[in-house]
Amino acid sequence: MEVDFIDNINEYGENVVRLFNFDKYEAIKFRDLIKDTIVKRKQKLILSQVDFIETHNCNLILGLFKTDEGIFSVDDKTFYCALTVEGYHNMLKLIEPFCVKDSKGYQYLYDIDNPTDFLFAPAATR
Question: Where do the domains of the chain lie?
């Protein structure tokens, strides 16, 4: 599993942080990390510290927030995914199909009016 940031993906100046290049077993491990670290223990999840995730041009930190804000960054290097517990429960539902079987599909992990999307794309490459 890898994570990177792609700037200006369209004419609206939108961006994407993507988790990509993984199989169903890594999807299961990622899902379980969100459940255990964020939902149950209410702690932040720093992807650069996860042994099966390779970071490229960014680091992503997932954490709880009072409202669903999505992904933001101050420096385009460290990104924060700020969602409510309900937002992470929804994310877990969106990840679940990738835990059942290997897929070439993709899924955006939230639907928030925010300039940076969060893309979950197992078959994507660099």
Answer: 16-117
pLDDT in tens, 111-122: 999 999 999 999
95, 107 Cβ separation under 8 angstroms: yes
**CA torsion, ordered 54, 26, 84, 106, to nearest 10 deg:** 90
What distance in Å separates the CA atoms of residue 8 and residue 102, rounded to the nearest whole number?
29
Distance in angstroms (rounded) separating the CA atoms of residues 96 and 27: 8
> CB within 8 A of 67, min separation 6: which ones?
82, 84
CATH class of 16-117: alpha beta
pLDDT exceeds cutoff 80 at 126: no
Decide: pTM greater than 0.90. yes
Bridge partners of 81, per DSSP, are 62, 71
Gap between the Cα atoms of 106 and 21, Å rounded: 11
Instruction: Give the residue among 80, 85, 90 at the shortest CA–CA distance from 114.
Output: 80
